[in-house]
Amino acid sequence: MRLSDEWQAQALCRGNHAHLFFPPSTFERKDERERREMRAKAICNVCPVMGDCKMYATAIREPFGIWGGMTEADRKQVVVAAAR
To answer: What does pTM read for this prediction?
Structure first.
């Protein structure tokens, strides 16, 4: 199965906001992570390709970052629920 990634060119997470969607390489406190994730999800909520992004990340089981308004933990819950 080959998934299209053409939608990525229209994603609002590209460019200046990319740092919000993945954890930093240095230590991040819980409150800092929650703030970063909230800001990233706010961008996702107005993104024209949020649905495509969410489906893509779930299908490939993306282990890192915020995709389609979902964190790693959110995506794991979707995969587990779908397996039931």
So the answer is: 0.87
Is residue 55 within 8 Å of residue 42, measured between CB atoms?
no
CA distance 41 to 44: 5
At 32, the amino acid letter reads E
Profile the chain (84 residues) by mean pLDDT over runs of 10 residues.
Answer: 81 89 94 96 97 92 94 90 84
φ, ψ at 73 (rounded to 5°) = -65, -40
Q: Which residues pair with 67 in a beta bridge?
A: 70
Structural domain boundaries in the chain: 7-83
Q: Which two tokens stand for residue 71?
A: 């964190």
- Confidence at residue 54, expressed as pLDDT on a 0 to 100 scale: 93
Burial class (CB in 10 A: 0-12, 13-18, 19+), 53: buried
